[in-house]
Amino acid sequence: MKPIKITYLYIAIVLMAIVSCKKDTLLNQTPPTKLTESSYWNTANDLQNYMNNLYGIDGIFPHYRGYSSLGIYSVDENSDNMVPQGENARLNGELTVAGSGGYADWSSIRNVNYFLANYQKVNASASDIAPYVGEAYFFRAMLYYKAVKSYGDMPWVNKPLNIDDKDLLNAPRLPRNVVIDSIVNDLDKAIAKLPAKSKAQSQRLYKEYAQGFKARVCLFEGTWEKYHANDVFGVSGQNGSKYLQLASDAANQVITSGTYQLDNAGIPNGYFNLFNQTDYTSSKEIMFWGAYNQQAGITTYWQNYYQFGSDGSESTGISKSLVDDYLCTDGQPASISPQYKGDDSLSHVVKNRDPRLRQSVFLYGDTVISNVPGGTPIKLFTYPALIAGDNCTTGFQIRKGLNTDFFQDSHNGPGGTDGVIYMRYAEILLIYAEARAELGVLTQADADNTINKLRDRVKMPHLNISSIGTDPKWAFPELSPVINEVRRERRVELACEGYRFDDICRWAAASALVVHKQPLGTMAKQFLTVLPTIVIGKNLFVNAQGYIQPYAQVSSMANGYNFNPGRDYLLPISLQETTVNPKIKQNPGW
Q1: Which pick of 7, 243, 336, 500 has the fewest CB atoms within 10 Å?
Q2: How confident is the model at residue 33, as a pLDDT?
Q3: What is the pLDDT of residues 498-514, one digit of tens each?
Q4: What is the 3-state secondary structure (H, E, C) of 68-101?
C-alpha cells in the first residue's frame, strides 16, 4: 500500500497547524501559516489540510528517528524478548510518581474534537467530507487507546476543551471499559466513513486498516478483562468475551475482504527480507507504513547501529527466553525434540529450528554491509562484541530489520529510509486465532487459515489443534495447549516488533514471564578461544549453567526483575493531576 510520509510538523495558533499539501506527498510540508476561524472551514481541502497534521503526531505514528536505537526493532527492550544494556526501569519496578505531566495527549485530542465540532461548516458534498471525518474518529480512538493502555480509567472528552478548561480539570475518570466502548464507537464511525483501500487516496487512512486497528483494540481489552478479572486491575462488570468477539469479527472482516496475503511465502530468507524494504507500496501484507525521504532530509539512524553490529554497536540483544520459544523443524519444542542440537554454539542453537529464528539472529558469515563503493569487500559478521562499550548484551545479536546497503548508514549518505511498519496482515491472522482460542471456538480450519499460513511461509509443520504435545517449558501450563501455542506463534512471528509488553500486560503474565526472572543470553564458553579478551567473572558474567547473565553486576537485579504485579501494569498519574482534580484517583499501588 501507499505510505504516509514522515516529517516533523509544527503546531501553531488558534486552530492547529494548518499547512498546504502537495498532491503527491501527504506530509512533506512547509511551516504553517496563522489562520483565523472565519477564514477557514470553507472547502474539503481545508479539512484535508487540517487532518494532515495529525498524521505527523509522534504519539499516533511514531517516527523512530532518534539516535542510539534500532528504531521499531528496539521497542521490545521493554519486555522479556530483548535485553538492553541498562535494565528496563518499568520491568524492574523502578518507576516513581512524577510531580507533573499529563496522562493523555489532551492537546491532540482537543484538535480532533475541534475538527469534529466545525467540519459541518464546510460547503462540500457528503462524499467529499466523509473520509476526513473518518480520519478524525480514527485518530481520537488511537489517542485514547494509547492512554487507556498506559493509565486505565480515563475521562472521555468529546468536545474541544482547552487544557485549563474546568470541564476537563474536573472530569472524573470513567471505567476503562466505558472508554473502550467509546473508542470502538469511534472506530465504527471511522470504518463507515473511510473509503476501502482500493478507493483511498494515496497515503491516507482507509477502511480495512481501521478494521484491523479495531481488532487490535478489542483483543487487548478482551484479554485484559479476562485475565485481570480477579486482581486490582479488574473491571466492574467485566465482559471480556464481548470484546474478544468484536476482535474476532473485525479481524475476519479484514481476512474475508480478500485484500491481503502474506508476502514472500516459501521464498528463502523471505521473512528476513520483509523487514528491510524502503518501499512497501506493492506489498500485499503491509497494511500501513511510514516512508522516509533522503531528499527532504527525513531519514533514520537504525542502520548505523545494525551495520556496526559486529563491532558491538547495537547495545542490546535478543533474550534466551525468546530464542527458546522457537520450535524445531519437526514442529516440536526444543525442550523435547530430538532435532535440537543444544546450546554449545550459536550455529547449534539455530540448527533444525523454525527458520524465523535463523533469519532474526546474526551468525558467523552473515553479510552486514553490502553495495560498498570502490570495490571494497562486503562486511561479514564474525562474532558478537560482548565486552565493547556498546556491546551485544546476550550474544544473540538481532538481525531482523537489517538493511545491508552501505548507503543506509547515515555515516555514508543522507541516512536510512527503510519503511516503518505500523500494521501487517500477519498480526490480523494472529488476532483472529487468539480471539477464537480465548473464546474456546478455534477450529482446525481457523488454525489452517491463520497460524498455518504463517508457518507455510517458512515451511514449518502445521499446528494440529487436536494433537498438541505437552511442552514442559510452557509459560502458562494452567491454560489450554491451544492458547499456549497461539501465544508462542504470536511471540515468534512478531518478535522485536514492539508488541510483547502489551501482551504481557493484557495477559496479566508478568508473574510468569518477568517477576524474579534473570534475562540470559547464549553460552559464553563458545567465544573464549575466538575472543581472548573475555575473562569470565571480570568483563563477562555467566550464571551457574554458563549462560551469559547481562545484569549479574546490577545490585537491584540480584533476584531478577522486581516488577510489581499489583502496581506496574499501569503507570502512575502525576501529583499535579491528582492535586488539581480530586476526582482523579491514583492507580493501584502508587
Answers
A1: 336
A2: 42
A3: 999 999 999 999 999 99
A4: CCCHHHHHHHHCCCECCCCCCCCCCCCCCCCCCC
CB 169 within 8 A of CB 580: yes
28 pLDDT band, cuts 50/70/90, is very low
As given in the structure block, the three cell numbers for residue 547 are 549462560
Task: Give the least confident one: 173-187, 252-266, 377-391.
Answer: 377-391
- Report the pLDDT averaged over residues 508-535: 97
Alpha carbons 254 and 88: distance in angstroms, whole number: 36
How far is Cα 392 from Cα 317, in angstroms, rounded to an integer?
Answer: 5
Q: What's the mean per-residue pLDDT of the chain?
A: 92
Helix, strand, or coil here: 417? coil
Three-state secondary structure call for residue 287? strand
Q: What is the pLDDT of residue 10?
A: 28
Residue with cell 472521555: 156
Which triple of cell numbers denotes residue 495?
A: 518478535
Question: Which pLDDT belongs to residue 24?
Answer: 32
Angle between helices 106-118 and 126-151 (to 10 degrees): 160
pLDDT at 377: 85
Q: Which three cell numbers stand for residue 569?
A: 501494569
Phi and psi for 104 in degrees, rounded to 5?
Answer: -160, 160
Contact 9, 53 (CB under 8 A): yes
Neighbour-count burial of 230, counting CB atoms closer than 10 A to its CB (0-12 exposed, 13-18 middle, 19+ buried): exposed
Grid cell, residue 559, equals 533476584
User: Is pLDDT above 80 for 26?
Assistant: no
How far apart CA 144 and CA 552 sit, in angstroms, is: 39
Helices of type H across 257-319: 270-273, 302-307
In the three-class reduction of DSSP (H, G, I as helix; E, B as strand; rest coil), residue 489 is classed as helix
Among the listed residues 6, 2, 32, the one whose alpha carbon sits nearest the alpha carbon of residue 297: 6
Give the C-alpha separation, 148 to 74, whole Å: 23
231/87 Cα distance (integer angstroms): 26
Pairing outcome for strands 286-291 and 4-5: parallel
How many residues are present in the chain?
590
Scanning the structure block, which residue is given the C-alpha cell 521493554? 78
**586/386 Cα distance (integer angstroms):** 42
Q: Cell numbers at residue 334, please?
A: 526444543
Q: Residue 394 to residues 84, 148, 401: CA-CA distances in angstroms?
A: 9, 33, 18
In the predicted model, is pLDDT for residue 8 greater than 70? no
The residue with greater pLDDT, 359 or 7, is 359
